[in-house]
């Protein structure tokens, strides 16, 4: 009742200074006790919404400011706030095929192992404090065990720091290592969220190109002043190439030569389809120059918000201190449930299952887009949940993406993944979360759009012959 009277006053339905019914009259009309109405009036008098006038009754306070939202008043931001431009981005409808990278979905955990995970948790004693800044000990144990087994890392639970995702782990490393204006090398094209985190720390980003073998380490060597590099060697984001062994060794040699640090983001290495992944760069590193960053976002579910850093000994304590000071923790129930999920073998079963599903979807994509007569080339298909469709020169990625959208298929274009001028163009297709039939249908529409564009353009046909 108090809430309703408050709302009526704020919305102007009860005018300032107007008289309310007596507590007896209101109680009778509402069929409630008079004591209740008196208590509500008293509460609102205490809050200043109403005033009681002796011998006269209860009134809406006369000196309340006019709080009605009037047109123009609430839509205008304060003058000093930064301006952001443009309309809110449009979104695909439920009938559309959404291949865009930023709304990527993953295959769900099976209902049975999900239920098992939480049943286990229900029997655990709830925590009474914030928990250790480095993360739940059981989860760190399980992660270290997994990384030794699956990624070739030589690490123990004491080396693992649990965070709310890989990007937060990178942010933590940047807070520890990046003074204002520090030059940090990033892949070009690269992961925008990582670049944003580094820029927010005041880093000066140095884009280093990527080719078929991953980061051009020769270019990194030539870029003076860089002492930190962020890379995705298992599955370069977004092009999807894998860094060759010789480049990995060259990168570690660069780090030793420059006394530099490499952050290895191993965000989806579990999801490799043609044979096992190469061992992580951090496993090759003998001198403590690589910080390994991992996540459960791709392999399990992005909504869990759990990732981790495996830091060399000299850095680990600093990362823990920073987390301690920030009060930041991944939620305890999720950490504990994940620890059980990993330790029980359910995690390995899940990875085997989703790998099969993703492989089917990948096959569907390849079936349709694998041979486009030189108009486009499908790349980065060996791993992960997305592919790169490189377009022949002359095909406009943005214009054609618009055409595809008009036919209900949404893709991400490559341009925003560059800091500088792009050296190629194309579409990024997150196919992982879509059923194979949907992938096939979406891919057919994309193929039609490209073929129609090529028919209408002689230069494109010539470029396509060249790409073939
Ligand atoms: C390159 C890269 N790193 C990390 C992540 C995952 O980040 P987080 O664990 O913060 O969800 C993603 C997700 O898209 C990614 O593309």
Overview of this structure, please?
With 468 residues, this protein is of the alpha/beta class. The chain has three domains: 2-60, Orthogonal Bundle (Arc Repressor Mutant, subunit A), CATH 1.10.10.10; 97-107 and 355-467, Aspartate Aminotransferase, domain 1, CATH 3.90.1150.10; 111-348, 3-Layer(aba) Sandwich (Aspartate Aminotransferase, domain 2). It is 41% helix and 15% strand. The protein contains 16 helices and 16 strands. It has helices at residues 2-10, 23-30, 34-47, 111-122, 137-151, 166-177, 192-200, 217-222, 245-258, 281-284, 313-326, 332-343, 346-369, 397-406, 436-455, 458-467, and strands at residues 50-53, 57-60, 97-98, 160-163, 183-188, 204-211, 214-215, 228-231, 261-265, 290-295, 307-310, 376-379, 386-391, 409-410, 412-413, 426-430. The strands form four sheets. The chain has an eight-stranded mixed sheet, with helices on both faces. Strands 12-13-16-15 form a four-stranded antiparallel sheet, with helices on one face. A two-stranded antiparallel ribbon has the order 1-2. Helix 5 packs across helix 12. The protein starts with a helix and ends with a helix. The mean pLDDT is 92. The structure holds pyridoxal-5'-phosphate. Pyridoxal-5'-phosphate (PLP) binds at residues 165-167, 191, 232, 237, 265, 267, 295, 297, 302, 307.
């Amino acid at each position: 009742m108090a809430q309703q009277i408050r709302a009526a006053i704020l919305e102007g339905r009860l005018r300032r200074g107007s008289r309310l019914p007596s507590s007896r009259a209101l109680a009778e009309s509402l069929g409630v006790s008079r004591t209740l109405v008196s208590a509500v009036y008293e509460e609102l008098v205490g809050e200043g919404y109403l005033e009681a006038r002796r011998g006269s009754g209860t009134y809406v306070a006369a000196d309340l400011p006019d709080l009605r939202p009037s047109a123009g008043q609430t839509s205008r931001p304060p003058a000093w706030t930064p301006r952001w431009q443009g309309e809110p981005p449009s979104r695909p409808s439920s009938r559309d095929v959404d291949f865009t990278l930023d709304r990527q979905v993953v295959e769900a955990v099976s209902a049975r192992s999900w239920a098992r995970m939480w049943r286990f948790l229900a029997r655990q004693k709830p925590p009474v404090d914030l928990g250790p800044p480095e993360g739940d000990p059981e989860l760190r144990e399980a992660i270290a065990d997994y990384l030794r087994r699956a990624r070739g890392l030589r690490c123990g639970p004491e080396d693992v720091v649990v965070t709310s995702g890989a990007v937060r782990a990178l942010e933590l490393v940047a807070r520890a290592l990046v003074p204002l204006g520090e030059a940090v090398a990033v892949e070009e094209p690269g992961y925008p969220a990582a670049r944003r985190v580094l820029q927010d720390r005041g880093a000066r980003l140095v884009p280093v190109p990527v080719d078929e073998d991953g980061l051009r380490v020769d270019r990194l060597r030539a870029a003076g002043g860089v002492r930190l590099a962020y890379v995705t060697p298992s599955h370069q984001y977004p092009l999807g190439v894998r860094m060759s062994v010789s480049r990995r060794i060259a990168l570690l040699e660069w780090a030793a030569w420059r006394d530099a640090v490499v952050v290895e983001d191993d965000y989806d290495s579990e999801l490799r389809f043609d044979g096992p992944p190469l061992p992580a760069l951090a496993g090759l590193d003998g001198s403590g120059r690589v910080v390994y960053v991992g996540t459960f976002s791709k392999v399990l579910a992005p909504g869990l918000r759990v990732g981790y850093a495996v830091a060399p000994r000299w850095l680990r304590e600093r990362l823990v201190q920073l987390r301690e000071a920030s009060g930041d923790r991944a939620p305890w129930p999720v950490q504990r449930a994940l620890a059980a999920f990993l330790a029980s073998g359910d995690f390995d079963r899940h990875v085997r299952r989703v790998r099969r599903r993703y492989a089917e979807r990948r096959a569907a994509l390849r079936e349709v887009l694998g041979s486009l007569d030189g108009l486009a080339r499908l790349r980065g298909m060996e791993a992960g949940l997305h592919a790169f469709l490189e377009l022949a020169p002359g095909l406009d990625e943005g214009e054609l993406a618009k055409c595809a959208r008009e036919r209900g298929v949404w893709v991400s274009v490559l341009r925003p993944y560059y800091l500088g001028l792009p050296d190629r163009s194309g579409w990024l297709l997150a196919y992982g979360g879509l059923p194979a039939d949907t992938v096939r249908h979406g891919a057919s529409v994309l193929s039609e759009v490209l073929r129609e564009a090529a028919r209408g353009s002689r230069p494109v046909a010539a470029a396509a012959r060249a790409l073939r």
